Amino acid sequence: MELIASMIAFFALVAAWFVLPSTPPVLQARPQSVPEALPSAA
Amino acid sequence: MDKISAGDTAWVLASAALVMIMTPGLGFFYGGLVRRKNVLSTVMHSFFILCLISVQWVLWGYSLAFGPDWKGLGIIGDLSWIGLNGVGLKPNADYAATVPHQAYMVFQLMFAVITPALISGAFAERKRFKAFVLFSLLWATFVYDPLAHWVWGHGGWLNKMGALDFAGGTVVHISSGVSALVAAWVLGKRITHKPGEDVEPHDIPMVVLGCALLWFGWFGFNAGSALAANGLAVSAFVNTNTAAAMAALTWLTISWAHKGVPSVVGATAGAVAGLVAITPAAGYVTPAASILIGLMVSVVCYGAVMLRDKMKVDDALDVWAVHGVGGTVGALATGLFATVAINAGASNGLFYGNPKQLWIQTIAVFSAWVFSGVMTFLILKFVNIFVPLRVSENEEAMGLDLSQHSEVAYSPS
Question: Which of A2, A14, A36 is nearest to B135 (CA)?
Fold first, then answer.
């Protein structure tokens, strides 16, 4: 019983990763021409 | 019933903890090598995998890797140990006769954790976090677990053939290194990385810190693989330190001659290459051989870095050149230098009158290259169906710390 519950819990997380956004909401609001936020060390 | 040894159990548990710290250490090593806008995402790769594989291993990974052989084929374990069913506190003599089975399981868990984390250096600065998550879970299940079974599992086909891999030259380093090359090729180059232009590490002290943590943890990785607090563990410990030091000295010297300066980053790369190469050999060779292995691996891996430059594959942190090639050097060197004078339970290598061992090592190396390379390609293509592997150009230019995590490593205030 515990094994089944733990499997369900883990796969619920994996399923959530599929549907959660790939891009943070703040960037979804302004996806175009985002300025470079931090200077590159290169 | 086998009797539990307090000393052996203490050493294996301490070694598991040592190997655990290698993964955050790898995060620091890689994190220092990337640009400052990508340091958090790089460190996060290692930290996330520590969490992800810790659960995957308990639920099904350990059973696939070390469980009873499925249908006697030597390919993969069955699922009878799923959720650690039957993996208790009594020893399992097939793996470690004097420590609780769960101690062996958790020691092996740490190997399963660091292996996919090693790959992350190849796709640094451009891989979408969600794609990385799915790739890592699939790779651990369909590449690492079967390969560990082949080499270390009871009934694994390379194990039965007599392949020697003391602590993971094929299972950990060739698999991750070759997969890194394939991943870098499939993902393509960083748009912000101009051809021929070096990406300067943003924090070299962090690189040295990460290297030091890796070296420290590697004592658990290799000496812990003796699975007992005994002379073999001491031999592996001494060989580990010696090879790392010799490889660092050699790499430093080559780069000094080649570029005119004794590079700090070069010294750390050499140390890691030495640690990689001695991994499969640590419990089979003499200290003198470990010096030669350290010398050989730095020469070959330095050449591999230059070759990678010519191949135009953007393996960002040279995972293939150091781990894939270094693991290959170590696995083949084991077939040269192994001696039963060090490990009576193993075999002699070519230099001790047994050329067949070198042939067996070659088969193991070839199998690991082909299997991990093909499987990684297929897994990446599969993940790409559901999630784009790369971030957008804007997100890459902005940096992954901000575009993937909405956080920055270093506050301007």
Answer: A14
The CA distance from A35 to the nearest CA of chain B, in Å, is: 7
pLDDT tens per residue, range B191-208: 876 666 667 899 999 999
Q: Residue-wise over B57-78: b if at least 16 C-beta within 10 A, else e?
A: bbbbbbbbbbbbbbeeebebbe
Q: Which residue has the tokens 């990508």?
A: B38
Which backbone phi and psi does B127 adopt, to 5 degrees?
-90, 135
What is the spatial distance between Cα B291 and Cα B274, in angstroms, rounded to a whole number?
Answer: 9
**Residue A30 scores a pLDDT above 70:** no
Q: Which residues of A touch B388 (CB under 8 A)?
A: 22
A17: nearest CB among B130, B197, B198: B130
**Strand-pair partners of B69:** B77
pTM across the whole model: 0.94
Which of B35, B128, B387 is nearest residue A41 as measured by Cβ atoms? B35
**Nearest alpha-carbon partner for B108 in B136, B84, B129:** B84
- Please name every residue paired with B390 in a beta bridge, in sequence order, or none if there are none: B127
Q: Tens digits of per-residue pLDDT, B4-13?
A: 999 999 999 9
Write out residues 1-40 of A within 8 Å (CB-CB) of B. Answer: 2-3, 6-7, 10, 14, 17-18, 20, 22-24, 26-27, 31-40
What are B259's two structure tokens? 């570029």
- Which has the closest alpha carbon to B159: B347, B375, B350, B354? B347
B155: left (phi over 0), alpha (psi -120 to 50) or beta: left
Collapsed DSSP state (helix, strand, coil) of residue B187: helix
Gap from A37 CA to chain B (nearest CA, Å): 6
